[in-house]
Structure formats: C-alpha cells, structure tokens
Amino acid sequence: MSLDSRTIKHHLSGQGILMSIGPICTRISIKFPSIRDDFLHIYKGYSFLEGPEITDFYLDVYGRNFYRRYLRPQVAINTLMNDNYVPLPVSMGLLSVEMGMNWQMAVGCKTHILFHAGVLEKNGVGLIIPAISGSGKSTLSAGLAYNGWRFFSDEFGLLDADSGELCSYPRPVSLKNESISVIKEWVGMDEPFSREYEGTPKGTICYLRPPNSSIENMHKTVQPRVVIHPVFNPDAKPDIKPLTETMAFFRLVRSSANYGDIGEPAFHALAKIAKECISCEITYSSLEEGIQLVNKFIDENLP
Amino acid sequence: MMKNNLLLKVLKNPVTMLDLDIKGWNSVLFEAQMLKLRGRLANDASELGLLEKLPSKVQKIFINAKIEAESGQRKIMWEVNRIRRALFEFEEKIILVKGSAYIAKGLNCAAGRTSVDIDILVAKKNLDIVENHLFIAGYGSQTMSEYDQLYYREWGHELPPLLHPDRMVEVDVHHTILQVTNKLSPNIDTIINAAEQLEDNIYLLCREDMLLHSIVHQFVDGTVKASLRNLLEQSDMIKEFSLDPDFWQRFMDRAEELNFSRPVFYCLHYCKYFLNTNIPDNVMIRAQKSAPGPLIRKLMDMMIFRVMVPFGENRSKLSDYLATNGLYMRSHLLRMPPVMLATHLTRKLYRRFDISVRALKKSA
Fold first, then answer.
1. Is B60 in Cβ contact with A111 (below 8 Å)?
2. How many CB contacts within 8 angstroms connect chain A with chain B?
3. pLDDT along chain B (364 residues), means of 10
4. Torsion angle (degrees, nearest 10) of CA A147, A21, A33, A189
5. Which letter does DSSP use for residue A76 in this model?
6. Which residues share a beta bridge with A240?
7. Cβ of B60 and A263 within 8 Å?
8. Any idea where the domains of chain A sit in the sequence?
9. Which of A31, A86, A99, B92 has its CA 20 to 30 A from that of B102?
10. Are A193 and A206 in contact (CB under 8 A)?
C-alpha cells in the first residue's frame, strides 16, 4: 500500500494526498516546496494513500495570492472549519500544517472523547497523562516513547466511548524551548527531529517523529489502566500524590475538550476510568525522575 | 448545470445516498462541510433509516455531525436561557430570530442545523435598556473602533456583537431586520406587533414574517455566496407552513404589505429551480408580477446559479469570481444610497491602508 515519495510529493503539491493517522483520514495539499520537504521528513513512514477513500478533514496550505505566494511569501491554511489563523512566514510553515491539523481535531472530532493528554502503552497497560500546556506532558510522553513505551499521542488522547478503549493517534511530538535539548540527548540521534523553528509565539519549537513501531501499530487500541497528572517543577522534591476517585473524575472532565458536546456517554466513560484506573499526581524536576516516578507508581499500585 | 450537483440531488432525495460511490461521497461531504450541511444530511439519513446501510466511515462522519449539531443547539438554548435571566426585569418583547427561533419552535428546518450565534430583535427605543441589562449580566462588546460603533448604531440594524466571556456564544441584538439605510427597510413596528409569545417575554416572529425575514436576509442583505443553507431553510418552511391551506394567501399579502414581493419572487423562483419545492401555480403567477425585467433576471440567474453551490470541477474561476463579486456589490448598493456607500468604503479603505502603514512602520 505504501506509495513512493515521488507520487506522494506529486499529490501533495496538487489535489492533495490522503494521510491516515489512527481513525482519522485527512487530505492535505501543500503549495510550498520547502514546507513539503519538512512535512515529508517528519511524516516519514506514515501511511499515505492514493485513494479513493472517504475523507474526514481537508487541509490546504497555500499562499493567498501571487504576492503572498512568490514575492513576499506567507503561509495561509484552510481547514474548512472557521479557523482564523494568522498567516505565518514560510520558514515556520510546518507549524501551520500542525496547527491546522490540531484545530481540526480539537473542533471537529466528536466521535471520540478527546483528552488534552499524552497517551502511551506498555504490556497492554494504557497510560493517560492529562495536563495543561507547560506541565511537561509532551516531554514526558516523548521520553517514555523512546524508553520502551508505545506512543499514542502527546496532545490528543482519543477514547472510544463505546468500547472504553484508547485509540492511537501518533502525530509528531511538539517540543518547546528547553525540552528540545533534553529530548535530543535522550533520543540520542538527530534523524527523527525536524528543524528547530525559532521566534514562534511559543518560543522555539521542534517536532519529533514517534518511534517507527508506534507508527506501524497505530491501529491497535488499548484499555486505559493508569492516569498520571504531571507537574514539572525544577526546584521541587519528587512526589507522588494519589487521587481519590472523585478528584480523578473531575480532573479528567477538565482535561477533555469535547466532554460537554458528547454529553452522557462521555460522563459514563470518564466515570468508568475514574473508577477502574489508578490515578495520581506526580511532581518531578527532571525527565529521568519523571519516568522513574511513573514506573514506581505503576509497579507499586497496579494489581 | 448546477442541477446535476450531487449534493443537491441528495438533499432533494436522501434515498439517493445509497447509490453514492466513494468519489460521490467525497464530493457530497466536502460541499456539505463548506455549506454547513453535514448535520442536515446526517439527520435526513437517520430519519429515513438509511444510516445503517451507509459505508461505515460515512456513518462515523454523520454521527460526528449529529453530535456537533445537537451540542450546538444545546448551547444556543442555554444562551437563550441566560439572556432571559439577564433580561428578566425587562417586560417588553424579546424576539428570537433566525437559527435560535427555529430551534426554539422545533421547526423541521432546525433538524441537524448547526447554529453558532443568537440573534434577538427588540424595539429600537429599548435598545439601550437591553444592552445595559446584558452588560450588567457580564456580556461585553468586542473592542472596535469608534467609527464601527457609530456605524452599527446609526445606520446598522443591530448593535455590535455581544459576547459572554464564559460561554463565547455571539449575541446580536437587532432593532430592525434590514439596515436602516436600505430602501427596502420595512416598518418594523408591524413586524414586532405581529410577533407571537413563546414563553414570558420571549417571542418569535409570526410564521409569515419568519419566512420573509429569512428571504430578505438572503436575497437583499446577505452575501448569496454559499447560502444554499438559507434557501433550504426557506424551502423547509414553505413545506411545513403551507400544510395550513390559508398560508399562501396570508404570506403573499404580507409580502406585499411589507414591500418584499421582489425578494419573495427570487426565493420562490430559486427554491423551485434548485430544490424542486412544491409551489402552487397561482402563487407562482402572483409572484411573477414582482419579477425584475428580463435583463436583470438573466443577470441574477447567471450569478445565482454560479454561487449557490460554489464548487465543483470544470468551473471557470473567472466567471465564479465575477458572479460572487457582482452579488456582493449588489448587496452593498441595496444597503445604502451611493454617496453614503462611497464615503463608507473610502473610510474602510483608508483604515486598511492605515493599518498596513502602521504595520510596516512597526516592522521597520
């Protein structure tokens, strides 16, 4: 089923190429050659289809007019979903692509319960790491992904409300500022990283492709067993604070983007997780410490 | 040419969904996404028991669209509740118009409809009171220039959009249904007087006015581009309201009274053309009397056929562009007298220029 890179490039620059990640199929077209190269590097090994296939989302990355395409180029995106993104310079083009896909998930996905969370799996144990931006969720997810865990997501945890299982949606990890060098050292090779995009509204951003095995197994689901809320604090002592069922429930509600849209099925699904999973909050001051705490909590508490 | 459009075919006769291949589905779903009609298709499919027979991927997309529409409607009705609470001391009519009214009344055209904002109509003399009550309840006006505020208040038909920071659902408070400078702008008192009570101080337009409002919104004031959804809602209302045998008589009389016969002609003409809406011959004959001359009519046909469903393969980009902009200019010319329009556009142009100059200076 895999297409050669020339065919992919050809479709990507024209009508669009179909990219299937987990349960979502997106048609993407990119009009700027430099962004296409960045895109194809970070999405190497993903499943591209020639079609025809029924498509969930459409993403166009283009220049608004001749002036914005060639003379003073600026990247605009069209997600077909009332987005209102400010065009970016071409040098930051990959950010536009990622922002567009994130927006489509955040606004358009109602078939799965969406957590703003990292999700990983090891030995059949599904781990949810819900957190707000800046708590080290992406860093911790990337660290675990390159430490024996199967990577599902660092941003959008997807839960199927009917089966109660987590679906994998392994998009590249978005690393920011200090965490870039930490993870580069952790991974130990440069190949899976994108360029570093400096001067963005969130500082420097660098993307990391998940391990190949995570991409290849993106259609395997897992039962959630553990929920860990990370708090990164460089000056704090390592700490594990177990959460009561009630607290676990409300924390999950808070981290879900479409809980209110889905309504009752979402309530039951989250109540089930709060009841059946072990939940805690960890405070950690370094990536290594964070991973130790995750393993410790699981080893000591999972029956 | 537009008549062969797959989306139109499916909307007219949802059972034809069963015949679509993958390519057909992609074209229908894409256009439905652009025109905000996925929820509508999903609703048609499940109402006719077709959902289980569709490809599984389409089922998922339709379930997605249904959840979206339902939660959107919940949010709208909750916002109506919040508005009622903010205005509980206000004893005059608060009239819901457009989407929220269809939802509140449970009209067929509301099924699967995604609404994102709320429009309410109040008498002009009460505008300040209503606005004040809403401010006290925490609603805020989005920051805008003095000129914008003035433009809305003096010439517009609504206040600058209000928003409650906790819920972010836009609330538009209207005092009439067309720009006051529009020469078709009606005597709003007759419309407000005819409004019917829903609950307490919440009212809805009477059926005839509800349909007329949708029509003038589309064919006089709005952009016609990609407005198939509005035409569809008119067609639905016609189907639903005309079950009452007296409806047509009342409706056509009301259109004449409010001087809306021309836009009504457009509505009936295009409903018939695009959606095969069943309109009795005598009504059509009466409406024809208000049709424009042959030249204008030809021109409108040419433009409307192009922009109502503005996609598809083998389309000439230039003529689509001309049609879209022609209709855009038309709506502006109708909106205010030419001199006023020129002043307004000059101001807007100047501001645009001013902003880019400032941006340049800043970057330098």
1. yes
2. 46
3. 78 95 92 92 96 95 95 95 93 94 96 91 92 93 74 76 90 86 82 94 96 91 76 96 96 95 94 94 95 87 76 60 70 71 74 64 56
4. 10
5. E
6. A282
7. no
8. 5-108, 113-301
9. B92
10. yes
